[in-house]
Amino acid sequence: MSGRDPGGSGPSRRALLIGGASAVGAIALGAGGLAWWTSTRLDGGGTGASDPPGDAPDAADGTVGETFREPEARTSSDGRLDVELAAGLTTVTVDGRQVRVLGFEGGMPGPTLRVRPGDRMSVRYRNDLGATTNLHTHGLEVSPEGDSDNVFVMIPAGGTFDYSYELGDDHPPGVFWYHPHHHGTTADQLFAGLYGAIIVEDAEPIDVARERVLVIADIAFDANGDVAAPTRVDRMLGREGDLVLVNGQLLPTMVAARGERERWRIVNACTSRYLRLRLDGQRMQLLGIDAGRFREAREVDEIVLLPGNRADVLVEATAGEAVLQTLPFDRGSMGMMGAPRSATTGADLARFVVSGDGAASAAPLPAPSAALRDLRDEEVTGRRTLTLAMGGMGGGMGQGMGFTIDGRTFAEGRTDIEQPAGTIEEWTIENTSTMDHPFHLHVWPMQLVEVDGRPVDGVDRRDVVPVPAGGRVVVRIAFEGITGRTVYHCHILDHEDLGMMGAIRVA
Ligand code: C2O
Ligand code: CU
Ligand code: CU
User: Fold this and answer.
1) pTM
2) What are the structural domains, with CATH classification, of the chain?
3) Above 90 in pLDDT, residue 39?
4) Ligand nearest to the CA of 490
5) Which of helix, strand or coil describes residue 205?
6) Which residues' Cβ are closer than 6 Å to ligand 1?
7) Could you report the per-residue pLDDT of 448-467, keeping only the tens digit for each?
């Protein structure tokens, strides 16, 4: 009884959920949206259209308009990156107001870590949170064991832990990120500000005027300027904050010159919020989602990022002033009549002001990536079905709902899937519930085969895939190269903390 119209009157659910995976779907999405933009957005603003690049004009409404800034970068050299990440309470200014958040190295987001395939990255994690924590390098294809990307590590309050990650020489380039992953408090710690970007550089740099990192995360504050505590219903729906920040800023302004090509590395670091990104009036080409690149860049009008997804995008500054926006998204409801529904609202995220003429990017588009392996052409060694479900736990909603995978909630000591190394599996992940669940598997990327019965075009590998309410996704996974025990879970992190997670061992 989902009570949802799977098709809706607009773009198909599938087109939305893997937005950008199909150029046709993405362009089809553009038509209606453009009209909406023209009629409601091209008013006011633009006061700074003649300001030189580098100076943010004052916003038309006078309440916002900070210059876009980025977290500090820590870049590897000679094959090594050694950083310290201290996690602790910190005071920052958001929307002109002093608030207390959690940050890495005093910042929200934490520093951007820039590494290359073949590098060793060492992180000394200092826990000043007053609570147990740990660190996950989301999307990195590295060992999940020992002092590497091991989510079973627990760092007590006041403790430190030395992580060490070895990236293979063949590690895909792309956008990754880090966040705490201590079961039970992952959502609390991430929502409060603990996240940062990781970039794995390309072998051949792409010719752009500038590169920007945009870590997008939502947050909410109470009257005292502390991060708002979620209600029980917030946890069940997956909490969303009323402020959607880019690098910790509310509606910052970016400035570019006409003709310039920029490369944007976008992270959806929201705890639960789906992002439907648009930058109407400028040109966007999607190089890839999560790790690696598509075979060819895809022209898109809209990019949908589920919690945990990243996008690698080329933006061509065309003219005028644009607003990077996220559009509303309906993630479903708790199912009963009159039960709370998650209606993700839209928001303006950043201003993009194009002024003057820049050096038009004469450089041709980056060459298509080296031939990508297509697991659909390979023999599958096994098939498996996973079922995501929500159910009342005695007494109904008042007692909370159970969020399960294959009928059970996470148990630390139990390994749910024993997977022989070297296998290629086809997994069908079905969702019997009335809410969407973004499904995440650590370490081994998933190639999309089908979303809700519709085949996916091209080679599209992701580490978070959409599992729509009442629907299913089919993926193929090569369990090769790396062995060890780790987890898969819903990346609505409140659901993960409520138990929608399992453990897998590949050996
Ligand atoms: Cu981004 Cu298991 O997490
Ligand atoms: Cu992860
Ligand atoms: Cu979920």
Assistant:
1) 0.89
2) 35-51+66-202 (2.60.40.420), 216-357 (2.60.40.420), 375-506 (2.60.40.420)
3) no
4) 3
5) coil
6) 136, 138, 179, 181, 308, 440, 442, 487, 489, 491
7) 999 999 999 999 999 999 99
